[in-house]
Structures are given as C-alpha cells and as structure tokens.
Design goal:
heterodimer, A: alpha/beta, globular, B: two-stranded antiparallel sheet
Chain lengths: 298, 352
C-alpha cells in the first residue's frame, strides 16, 4: 500500500461537522460546476487482468453535491472502476483523489475516515443480522472502544451505542424500513434488501456515496422508488453520489452528469442531454449501420 | 414506533425471564433432586462441554471461522491451571481460572493468525496444527505434568476463600456458577458492537472492511474470546469433572465432539450450545438403555460405541441438510407455532 499523502487518522468524515454544500447545488435540474477540488478525482486509471485491459486511462471528476452516473454496456469496466475507487482493486497506473488526499492504492479499511461509503452490485448485506443491526453496522468504525468496556457498558460505550442507535433509527425511518427493522435481513425480498444496503451506506452520512448498479434486479416500481431515495440521499443527507448503472434510461433523469465507458475507455462525458445525442454513445449502445455494413447488406 | 419498541421490549423481557428460569432451575431444583450419579456423570460434564461449545460457537457460529482445535484449548486451560496452582503457592482459584483462560486465549490468538489469510476448509486444516502441537508438547515435555511419566495430572481440590468444593453437589455448583457468569458475559459481548462485527465478518468480509470493521482485530478477538472460554471449560473438565486427566483425553475426537455439539445444537446460538451439549451427553446414556432393553446382552459396550458413532454421524448429515441451524431452530419453530395457535399475533408486513 503506497500512499502518496498521509491521511489524518480521523479525517473530516463525520456528518455533524460537514458542510452541506451550496444550497442551489442540491436542488432542481441545476448542473453544478466542477470545483477546483473535486470530491472524487480519478486520473489516468488503468487496470489490466492478465493482459485484458479492464480500464484504460480513465479520468473522472466528481463535484460536490452532484449525482454522477457512470454508464456503459456489460463489461465496459464500470464495476472495476468502482472497485479501484474503494480499494478492492489496485490500478496499474493512475491516481485516486478524495478531496486533497491522493492514493495510488486506496486503503479499503480507511474509506470511512475519508467519508466514503459504497453499495455492491450483488447484495452484500450481513444476512444473519437484523435490518436494524445491519444499518447499525454502517457506524462500526465509530466504536473505537475495547470489548471489555463494551461488555461492562462504560459511560462512553453506552453514549456511542445510543448515538449510533439514534442515527440508525433516523435513516431507517428515512428509507421507510421501520416495519421490517427487526427482521433478519436475509429473509427479506431483494428490493427491500437493496434499500437496507442503501441505509447502511447512508447512516454514516458519507461525503461520497458509491452505488454499484443500485437498480439491478429490482422491479420497475422499486426502481422508481429507489431512484427517489437516491435523490433524497443527496438532497437531505448532502451526499455526493457516484452511480454505476447499466440501464441508460433511468440515469438520464436522475443524474447531473454522465460518463460513458466502453471497452475500458471513457468515450463520452457530459450532461444527460449531451450524452443522449453523442454519436459515440449511440454507437456503443445501439450500434450504427456503418457504410461497409450497408454495402455488405446490399 | 411505539408498537415496535414494545414488541422488542416484550421479546427482551421474555428472554430475560427464560434465562432466569433456567438459572433458578439449575441452582435450586437440580442439586436437591439429583443423585450423585446424575451430577457427577451427567450434569458436570454437560456444563464443561456446554461452556466449550459456547466458546467454539463464538468463533465458528458467530465469527464464521471454522476450528478443529477445540480440544487443544481445553488442554491448554487444564494444564495451565494445574501448573499455575502448582508453581504459585497460594494462588486463589478464581485468579488461577482467569489466568488459565488467558493463557488459552493467547495460544488461541497465535493459532488464529492463519485466519487472516485462510478461510473455510483451509483454516480448519490449519487449526489442526493446534490440536496436534498441543497434544504433542504436553506429552513430550514433562514439565507440563510435573514430570509424570505418562503426562497425567491430578487436579488439586477446589476451594475459594476457605470454602471447598469437594463433593459432587459442590463441584456442580462451582461449575454452574462459572458457566452462568461466562455465558452471560459472552451474551453481552455478542450484543455489543464487537458481536455484530463477528457476524459481519462471517457474512460478508469485504463489505465489513469497506464500512470500517477492523477485520484483523475482529478475527483475533474471536479467537481469543473463544479460546478463553474453551480454556476455562478445560479447567472445569479437569478439576471439577474428571479430576485426573492426560493429554490423550484431549484428542481430535474431543474437538469433533464440540464441533458436533454446535452443529446439532445450533450454530450462532448460545442456547443451541447448551441444547447440543445436553444432547451429546444424554444421547449415549439413552442409547445404552434403549439398546439393552431391545437387544439384551448382544448390546455390549462395543456395539454401543459403534452404534453411537453411526447415529451421531447420521444426525450430523441430517441436520446439515435439513436444518443447518440445529435443534434450537426446531425448538423455536415449534414454540412459535404453538404460540401462534394459542394467541394469533400480527406479523409485520413488508412495505413495497
């Protein structure tokens, strides 16, 4: 793990002290301008798996308070990109920046200290814990006291436990999970589990929330509800959101800016309107009749 | 919200009530009603095995780290307590117990280090190293057994502040007190953030790491706590139950026995550890009675041994296929069904 700059151990991650960002950034269809110092910056990220290039010189900047989508066909490198950001993969080249901290390999265990939370493409809940305890787990990093004090229930231990429970209760209410909070997570329908995972990520009030295909495998009505929750996560919790998505239609209405990956390269980046009319994107997604194809067909 | 809070508090108080009844029954009814045989040959070994199973359940059931080295930690606890008592004159029994558990915990943490790289089957195999190494060391180095030729140790008499625990009832009460206190402490731990971290590491290690669970510390804590409990169980086994033990008594069969207790009783359930231990202790006794009644003299000790192994094996397979959560899940389901029949309760609905 080679870190270019040393991160402060506690970091500016905790929700209460964090600025909520400029109000007009978080409302309406307004497109935030990238700041000098993006919340997340990727520079020249390249990643290969045994000679197969998953990512090639990908740049990405994510501004404070925006919903930033990364789309692309299957195998375009979207999830690899997210895994580089959260440190599951180490990029062969390039740099990941959270605010002013730059890494060539992101330390996964320090993500929360940088205010970063993520969800997973296939559910990654703790199946044996209740919904409430799953959400509470999102604050595990705040419990920095020894197990003996937790057993005895020292004043500090109780105080932290009470604060965390209050925070979990709030997020559970926010995502309408009250009715199922005592249920074991593994027994719930897929769509509800996706919401639990969102709650677990949100409870720490992350500055940056990475969502890996949050709408995959859920029904249409659940998709609409989830996308509402994603928008609320930004508007009410002040999280900057990076969203990986396969379904191009859904993200267009939700995102402020969209980057498009194809075969590991970024082929377009801009507002949904720009992306919708970009010939390279249309080519990647729909395919176009090239002149030689038409000749062959004729 | 108020309704939810009240169901939660109702469940908690029902649980507290259940634990209270079990403890009162264990202290009050059994010593009066039980014969010496029942206490000596059934209840005291049941308590020691139940505590060992609680220990293994913390590690395997909750934290998801499979171990085949439980008997080694029983042995470490027993031999550590023996040596501490022998070499530090006047050491109070309770201090001896805690120190022996701590030594077992330290050994457990060392043998838990491979868990940082290995998982599942491979980890199970690496814990066999503990099993074989400890048994070998206790036999090889005479110092551990005070130079007894075959490594046998004789337990010192149990006494705390002048009160001695010598007859079967007293030894039972001593064991029961240790088991009750440690089980309640373990329950507290499992309900704390550390306990939730165990399950998180078991269910999804990468997700746990992303949300800032200290993976290394959590796994080693599980190994430490587990080995502490098993080590103390070893002291009970050697000092309160058998009173004369040798390293061969802590062999791989014993490790498997404890693993079977938590599989049959219920993984990730403290109650399951007790139910499973009761089953493992009572089952051979029942089997010998039933066998003798049905087959008469044909059913000798050899046949008993063999049929016991076969039946336990069949049960393990049956439970792993049909009910991986063990006897306790069967019990809970039956209980819930009866309860629902008597008093139909509203089930929480899932909002869409």
């Amino acid at each position: 793990m080679l870190r270019l700059e040393e991160a402060p151990p506690d970091g500016p991650a905790h929700g209460q002290t964090r600025e909520r960002g400029d109000a007009n950034m978080r409302h309406g269809g307004h497109v935030p301008q990238p700041l000098a110092r993006p919340v997340l910056g990727l520079a020249n990220i390249s990643l290969t798996f045994g000679g197969v290039a998953a990512l090639r010189d990908v740049d990405l900047d994510v501004a404070q308070g925006e919903i930033r989508a990364v789309i692309g066909p299957n195998g375009a490198g979207k999830s690899s990109l997210l895994n580089v950001v959260s440190g599951q993969y180490r990029a062969d080249r390039g740099e990941v920046r959270f605010g002013e901290h730059a890494f060539d390999e992101v330390p996964t265990s320090k993500l929360t200290a940088h205010g970063v939370a993520r969800t997973f493409q296939n559910l990654a809940l703790f199946k044996g814990l209740s919904v409430f305890d799953n959400v509470l787990m999102g604050l595990a990093h705040r419990v920095r006291i020894g197990f003996l004090r937790q057993i005895v229930g020292s004043p500090l231990a109780r105080q932290i436990e009470a604060e965390n429970r209050a925070a979990a209760t709030e997020v559970i209410g926010f995502l309408h999970l009250d009715q199922v909070q005592d249920r074991i997570a593994g027994t719930l329908p897929y769509g509800v589990q996706k919401r639990v995972e969102l709650a677990r990520a949100l409870v720490a009030r992350p500055k940056l929330l990475l969502l890996d295909e949050p709408f995959a495998g859920v029904t249409l009505s659940e998709k609409q509800e989830l996308s509402l929750h994603v928008r609320n996560a930004r508007d009410s919790f002040g999280a900057t959101i990076v969203l990986i998505e396969h379904d191009i239609g859904l993200v267009m209405g939700l995102s402020d800016r969209v980057a498009v990956l194809n075969y590991g390269r970024k082929i377009a980046d801009g507002t949904p309107e720009e992306i919708r009319t970009d010939p390279a994107v249309i080519d990647a997604y729909l395919g176009v009749a090239h002149e030689d194809d038409t000749e062959l067909a004729a | 919200m108020a309704a939810l809070a009240s169901t939660q508090s109702r469940r908690v108080s029902a649980e507290t009530l259940g634990i209270g009844i079990a403890i009162v029954a264990a202290y009050g009814v059994v010593p009066l009603a039980g014969s010496d045989y029942l206490l000596d040959a059934v209840l005291t070994p049941f308590l020691a095995l139940a505590l060992a199973a609680v220990g293994l359940n913390v590690l395997t059931g909750y934290a998801g780290q499979v171990s085949l080295g439980s008997a080694a930690f029983l042995a470490v606890g027993a031999y550590a307590a023996y040596n501490l008592h022998l070499r530090i004159p006047g050491l109070p029994l309770l201090v001896d117990l805690v120190l022996a558990g701590s030594i077992a915990a330290a050994v457990g943490i060392v043998f838990g280090l491979p868990s940082l790289r290995l998982r599942g089957f491979y980890l199970a195999v690496s814990t066999l190293a503990a099993q074989f190494f400890v048994q070998w060391a206790l036999t090889k180095f005479g110092w551990f057994s005070n130079d007894n030729a075959s490594g046998v140790i004789d337990a010192p008499p149990l006494s705390i502040a002048g009160v001695s625990f010598t007859n079967p009832v007293e030894r039972y009460v001593f064991s029961l007190t240790v088991v009750v206190v440690l089980s309640l402490v373990t329950l507290r731990l499992l309900r704390s953030q550390s306990g939730r971290n165990f399950v998180a590491v078991r269910d999804h290690e990468i997700a746990a790491k992303v949300i800032g669970v200290p993976i290394l510390r959590t796994k080693l804590l599980a190994f430490g706590i587990s080995s502490f409990l098993i080590g103390v169980a070893g002291v009970l086994w050697a000092f309160a139950y058998l009173r004369t033990v040798e390293p061969a008594g802590f062999n791989l069969d014993r490790s498997f026995q404890i693993l079977f207790i938590i599989i049959i009783g219920g993984l990730a359930s403290l109650r399951g550890s007790f139910v499973g231990a009761a089953f493992i202790v009572v089952f051979p006794l029942l089997l010998s009675r039933v066998g003798a009644a049905l087959l008469g003299s044909v059913f000798d000790s050899g046949v008993l041994e063999m049929s016991q192994r076969i039946l336990i094996g069949v049960l393990i397979i049956a439970f792993l296929i049909a009910e991986p959560r063990g006897l306790i899940a069967l019990w809970d389901r039956t209980w819930a069904r009866t309860w629902a029949a008597v008093w139909p309760a509203k089930h929480p609905t899932i909002p869409t």
